[in-house]
Amino acid sequence: MMQAPEPRFRFAPSPNGRLHLGHAYSTLLNARIARTLGGQLLLRIEDIDLGRARPEFVAGILADLDWLGLRFDGPVRRQSEHFADYAAARDALAARDLIYPCFCSRGQIAAEVAARQARGAPVSRDPDGAPLYPGTCRALSADARRARIGQGEPHSWRLDMPAALRTLADPLLIRRFSPDDGAEETVSADPARWGDAVIVRRDVPTSYHLSVVCDDAVQGITHVVRGQDLEAATDLHALLQRLLHCPMPAYHHHGLIRAEDGEKLAKSKDSESLADLRARGVTAEDVRARLGFSRLC
C-alpha cells in the first residue's frame, strides 16, 4: 500500500505592506494544524506584483514571523524567481487552446458592460462582485490574435471557460478537511461562476490564480489553510489543477479577523500592523493570547 505523503502546509503573504492580526491568525492556525497532523509548514513570498512588492516589506514579514516565534521548514520560495515556471504553465494551456489573449482595457470592459446594462441585458457577476468578462476577445480569429500580439499590443490571457469545462470527463470536486482531526469531505466546484478569468496578467507572465496552483504543486502542499475571502477562488484553482495535471490539496477556509467596525483587516485600509502593535509595547504572547493561541505553535 502506498504511504500517504507527509502533510505540508504553507503560509504565503504578499510583500506589499506589513502583516496585521489577520495574517498572524492565519499563520498561527497553519502552524497549529501542521503540528497536530505531524506535518511541515513552509513559507512562500508571493511577490509577483513587482510594482508593489518591496524588499523592506519582505524583511518586515520575516521579522514579524520571527517575533511571533514561528519557524518554517525548508527554503523560502519567492514567486518572482519562478516566472519561467508560470510561463511554461501558460504555454501548456495555450497549446490546448484553453486560454486566449485579451486586448481589452478595464475601461473598455466597463464601457461594454455599461452598454449592456443600458440595453436592459442582464449582467452576471463573479463571486467578488465584478461583472463577468463579456467574451469580446474570445471571438477573435487566430490570425487577428497573432497580428495584434506581433504589433506589440498589450494583452492579458483569459481562461476560455466553456472550452475548459468541456475537457472535464467527470465532476470537479474540492477536498475539504477538518482542522481538528484532518477528516475530509468533498464538495462540488463551480468554476463557471468566474467566467473567463484572467490567468496571465499584462505586466507579468502569471496571475495569483496560476502561480498559487503551480507553487502548491511544486512545493508538495497537501493542505491549504487560508481565509474565507479566498474560498470561492478554490473553484477556479481546482479547475486549473485539473487542466495542468496538478495534485489537489485539501482546503480549510477560516474565519477572518475583523476591525471594530466589522470590516476585515487589510493592508489597503491601513489596518494596524504587527509592527505598530510591537511599537506600542504589545508582546508576541499578548498577540497569541488575543488570537486564541496561548501556546507557542
UniProtKB/TrEMBL annotation:
Pfam families noted in UniProt: tRNA-synt_1c
Source organism of the structure: Methylorubrum extorquens (strain ATCC 14718 / DSM 1338 / JCM 2805 / NCIMB 9133 / AM1)
PANTHER family attached to this UniProt entry: GLUTAMATE--TRNA LIGASE, GLUTAMYL-Q TRNA(ASP) SYNTHETASE
Top EC class, one word: ligase
Keywords attached to this entry: Aminoacyl-tRNA synthetase, ATP-binding, Ligase, Metal-binding, Nucleotide-binding, Protein biosynthesis, Zinc
Gene3D superfamilies noted in UniProt: HUPs
Chain ranges of the Glutamyl/glutaminyl-tRNA synthetase class Ib catalytic domain: 8-275
Entry's family note: Belongs to the class-I aminoacyl-tRNA synthetase family.
Phylogenetic lineage: Bacteria, Pseudomonadati, Pseudomonadota, Alphaproteobacteria, Hyphomicrobiales
PROSITE patterns xrefs: AA_TRNA_LIGASE_I (PS00178)
GO molecular function, one term: ATP binding
Enzyme Commission number(s): 6.1.1.17
GO cellular component: cytosol
InterPro entries: aa-tRNA-synth_I_CS (IPR001412), Glu/Gln-tRNA-synth (IPR000924), Glu/Gln-tRNA-synth_Ib_cat-dom (IPR020058), GluQ/Sye (IPR049940), Rossmann-like_a/b/a_fold (IPR014729)
GO biological process: glutamyl-tRNA aminoacylation
Name this polypeptide is given: Glutamyl-tRNA synthetase
